[in-house]
Amino acid sequence: MCEPAESHAHVQRHTTLRPAAESQSADAGLVIDLHEELLNRIVRRTDQRQSAVRDFVLGADVHGVESTTTTVQIDLRPSVDGVALDLVLSGRNRSHTVGYTPQAAVRTLGQHRFVARKRIVHDGRLFHTARPRVDVSPSNQTLGVDTPVSGMPLLGDVAASIGYQAAEARRPQGEMIAAQKIRDGVGTEFNQQVDSQLARLNAGWIEQVAPRLERVGFADFALTGQSSDEWARYVIDVGSGSRAGQRVRQTAQRVTRVRQPAVRMIAQRTTDGTVGQAAYLGRVSVDDRAINAVLERLDIAGATVRAADFAEPAAVALQVLDTLRDRGLGIAEIPPEAAGALAGLSIRFDERAPLRVAFTRDLIWVRARASVAVPPLIDLPMMQITLRYRIRDAGGGAIVLTPDHLELTAIDPDGPAPGPLAMLLQSQALSALPEITLPREIELPIPDAEPLGLAVESLQSADRRLTLTVR
Q1: Please, which of 24, 94, 281, 344 could form a disulfide with 38 given CB 3.0 to 4.6 Å?
Q2: What's the Cα-to-Cα distance from 144 to each of 65, 153, 165, rounded to whole Å?
C-alpha cells in the first residue's frame, strides 16, 4: 500500500506557476505543463449503480432499492515537492425503502449527497497517498406509515399519525446511521480501488521503467513535479548525478514562489468573478541542450552506422510512421530512387560533437560531423552537415516543418572545400527530404474510454527551446 501523502509533500496555499518558456533555466531540459481541465478530461468518470436494500435499522427490518451516481475528478493542490492533487469522488445516493416493525411499516425516501477527497502526491517517480476524507449530507423524508389498522375509519388515521410522529422523531438518528454507512462504504471502497491502481503504477515504475532507464544509461536523470491550483508541471533533467537533480529542485522552488502575471494565467477571472476559458490546456517545452545531452549518451562518437544494420529498427520506424500518418501527421513520401540509394548508406561520425540539435526563432537545426559513403559512387570525407527545418503556419491552423537549407562544409576552415560530388549530393538530398505537417488534432488514447481529442495550438522554436501547445 502507498505511504501517506502528508509525509512526502509540503503544501503551500498560494503557489502559482509561470509558463515554462519564461521560468525554466537551462537545467529544465524537458518541461510538461498540464492544466487541471486537461487532467479532468482524462480522469473524469461518471458511474451509476442500482441495487437492492436489505438492512436492520433502529429495530426495523428495511427492504427497498437504491441508486448511486458518482463522478470522479481531479482537484489540483499547491505543492513544490511533487504534483499534489485531491482525487474527488462526489455522488448522490437515492433510496426508496420500507422499514417493517410489528407496529408499522414506514415508507422512506433517502436522498444523500457525499464527497470523498483522497490526497495523492506524485514525486515524479512514485505515488504517495493518504486515506480519504468523506463528507455526507444525509436527508430522509418520511413518505407514509401503514399500521395494522390502516383503512379503518378514524382509528387508522390516528395510528398513522402516531406512527409518522414516531418516525420523524427517529429521523435524525436514522440520517446519522445512513451517513455513517455511506462514509464507511464509500470511503473503504474508494480508498482500496485507488490504492490498488496506484500500487500497480508504482510497481510498473520500480520493476519495468527504472530498470530500462538504467540499461540505456539514464538511471541518474532527475524528474521532479510541482503544482498550483490549476497547473501540474513535470521537469526532466537528463544531466548527470545528484547535482542535476538538486539544480532542478532549486529551479522548481524558485519558480513556484513567483506569482504568475494575470495576463499569463491559463484561466483568468472575469469582472463578475467567474473563471474564463483556458487559453491552452497543455504545453511541452524542450531545451536543445537536453536533446544534445541525450545524443551524447548514444555513444555514436567515432562510430560507423550502416543502413543495413538497421533493417529491423527501420521496419519498426516505418510502422510507427504509418501510424502517425493515420493519426493525421503529414509526412511527404521519400522519392523511390532516394530510398533505394539509402539502402547502401553508411555514416562514420566524428569523435568530437558528432550530432547536435539547436532551436532558434522558427528554425530547427541539425548539425552532424561525419563522412558519408554510398558505394560504389559516393565516398565523401569527414565534413559538417547542416540541415535546417523552418516552422511555418500554412493557413487554416496547419503547422508545417519545411526543409529549406542543407549545407556540406569542411570541418577544418583551412582544409579543402567539398568537391563537385558533395555539392551535387547536397542539392539532390535537400529536394528528397520530406516536408512534415502536424495534425490539427491529436488523439490521446484513454484506457476504458473514448480517445481524447486535443487541438494543436502552436509549435514554436525560440531561445533554445521547442514548445508544443495544445488546447
Answers
A1: 281
A2: 17, 17, 11
Taking CA atoms, 337 is separated from 307, 341, 424, 435, in Å, by: 15, 6, 15, 17
- 5 secondary structure, DSSP code: G
Answer positive or negative: Cα dihedral of 183, 187, 188, 190: positive
Place of cell 502526491: 121
CA distance readout (Å), 375 to 205, 300, 343, 345: 45, 22, 10, 8
Question: Could you read off the pLDDT of 127-178 as tens digits, one per residue?
Answer: 999 999 999 999 999 988 888 877 788 787 888 888 888 888 888 998 999 9
pLDDT (0 to 100) of residue 19: 43
How long is the chain? 471
Looking at the fold, whether 166 and 310 belong to one and the same domain comes out as no
DSSP 203: H
At residue 246, does pLDDT exceed 90? no
pTM strictly above 0.85 = no
Residue 235 — φ and ψ, nearest 5°? -120, 125
How far is C-alpha 396 from the geometric centre of its chain's CA atoms?
27
- Phi, psi dihedral angles at 197 (to 5 degrees): -65, -45
What residues contact 442, with CB distance under 8 A and at least 6 apart? 327, 328, 453, 454, 455, 456, 470
In a domain, 182, yes or no: yes
Query: Cell for 433?
Result: 527530404
Q: Which three cell numbers stand for residue 65?
A: 432499492
Phi/psi of residue 322, each to 5°?
A: -60, -40
> What 3-state DSSP class applies to 115?
strand
C-alpha distances in angstroms, 276 versus 27, 41, 264, 267, 270?
Answer: 33, 17, 13, 5, 6
> Which helix (H) or strand (E) covers residue 247, if one does?
helix 241-256
- Residue 264 carries which DSSP code? G
Same domain, 199 and 322: no
**432 shares a domain with 315:** yes
Number of independent structural domains in the chain: 2
Q: Is 94 exposed, middle or buried (0-12, 13-18, 19+ CB in 10 A)?
A: middle
Question: Quick one: 43 and 149 in the same domain?
Answer: yes
State the number of CA atoms in the 13 A half-sphere of 394 facing the CB. 14
Q: Which domain holds residue 105?
A: 5-10+37-213
Residues facing 71 on adjacent strands = 46, 90
Residue 413 domain-assigned? Answer: yes
Judge whether 271 lies within some domain. Answer: no
Q: What is the enclosing helix (H) or strand (E) of 406?
A: strand 398-410
Looking at the structure, do residues 187 and 311 belong to the same domain, yes or no? Answer: no
